[in-house]
Amino acid sequence: MTGGEEKIRVLIVDDISETRENIRKLLQFEKDLEVVGAANSGRSGVEQARELKPDVVLMDINMPDMDGITATELIRQHNPATQIVILSVQGDPNYMRRAMLAGARDFLTKPPAVDELTAAIRRAGKMAFAERLKAGSIAGMPGGVPGFAAAQAALGKIIVVYSPKGGAGATTIAVNLAVTLHNEETPAALVDANLQFGDVAVFMNEQVRNSILDLAPRADELEVEIVREVMLTHNASGVKILAAPTRPEYAENVTGEQFVKVLKFLRSMFSYIIVDASTTLTDVVLAAMDASDLIILLTTQEIPAIKNARLFLDLADVLNIESRRILFIMNRFDKRIGILPEKISESFKREIAAVIPYEDRVIIPSVNRGIPFMMGDRTRPIAKNFLALAEVVRQRINELATESAENVAVAKKR
Q1: Residues whose CB is less than 8 angstroms from the CB of residue 32 and which lie 6 or more positions away in sequence, other chains included
Q2: Rounded Cα–Cα distance for residues 178 and 160 (Å)
């Protein structure tokens, strides 16, 4: 059973009472599944999800007051650990795409076979448990993953955003990813690893008062209160920022070892630590990559950016960076340009996990005003794609955490 003896808690959302009852009856014979609630509308489903915090929501897509896709977005915003399985009488690929962009974990056509339904719930439940473990929210519950595995899962995850070619938009990605991942249950920190010419604070319209320079000398004796005093707070989003030094020459005062010690301390304070890396592979950037849980590698449709991405992937093999820890994405995508993500993916024999379109009318004003575009209208195409990226990041981190816990369990049995 997933998560020891703990059951997967399921909420059913469907406006047809007969459907709700049929699903409840199907699931009552599964010992590891527990139906904790049933809602007859999308709006009621959102309210019950906030109150019950289920592991999995079975969500109908067509409901009169609020459709399942809108309800999915709202539930995922307030309860990131809760996984959504969409049920629809229509197997339309467009519905499926919209559901996944909204944050759904799976998509099933009505009426699903019993085995298909229970398998989807168990997959989603496994993801929910991993997400809660990572946030430390089930550390005290009975039947949780014991000892080392639980302690590791509860620590925050370090995500390095890197492009080997300047101008690919790494800072834009890092800033907006932090804003997207941050909420009360999974707080996010944003760390500027471009110690000479870092722009994270500028992108967030914050004046640098303190920086990594204030923490590096005391990296072996950090305290939560000291770290909080040094970090900037982006009031509009709540994201905490550890800024780069105010002058380029100060960068040499921070070693890679000190930088990583600070990052590892932040893991005890935040669920996500987003690191904006410089293009140059300095000691600080290499140390951050070595300590990271995930590296987001950016490319664009420009030939030099594609060439450099390939060079970095070759270097990653030399550095023994596990392939699964690298999430390859395309930024600034313009469909008018003939170099398509599919072509690069085929050439590299590596999946491009997400594609972010280039919208200059959104990005340029966002940068100039110092307001991350994910603070604004999330119905724009670029925002929708960014929500999908955040979901991919969560899923990959959860998968890696689960694999790590399983490897520890296997090692203990030997």
Answers
A1: 1, 2, 7, 8, 122
A2: 11
Distance CA 205, CA 230 (A): 17
Domain segments of the chain: what residues? 8-146, 155-413
pTM passes above 0.85: no
Strands (E), 277-404: 294-299, 326-333, 354-357
Per CATH, the number for 8-146 is: 3.40.50.2300
**CATH of 155-413 among 3.10.290.10, 1.10.3720.10, 3.40.50.300, 3.40.50.1000:** 3.40.50.300
Provide the edge-to-edge strand list for the sheet that holds 272-276.
Answer: 232-233, 240-242, 188-192, 272-276, 157-162, 294-299, 326-333, 354-357
Whole-angstrom Cα distance, residue 133 to residue 139? Answer: 7
Alpha carbon separation from 34 to 38, 140, 405 (Å, rounded):
12, 20, 24
Amino acid, single-letter form, for residue 115: D
**Peptide bond connecting 93 to the previous residue in cis, omega within 30 degrees of 0:** no
Residue 21: its H or E element: helix 17-27
Return per-residue pLDDT of the chain as tens, 414 residues: 444 457 899 999 999 999 999 999 989 888 899 999 999 999 999 999 999 999 999 999 888 888 888 899 889 888 888 999 998 887 666 667 677 777 787 888 888 888 889 988 998 888 888 777 755 543 443 344 444 444 455 679 999 999 999 999 999 999 999 999 998 888 999 999 999 999 999 999 999 999 999 999 999 888 888 999 999 999 999 999 999 999 999 999 999 999 999 999 999 899 999 999 999 999 999 999 999 999 999 999 999 999 999 999 999 999 889 999 999 999 999 999 999 999 999 999 999 999 999 998 999 999 999 999 999 888 888 999 999 999 999 999 988 888 877 776 666 666
> Measured between alpha carbons, how far is 159 from 93 in angstroms, rounded to an integer?
31
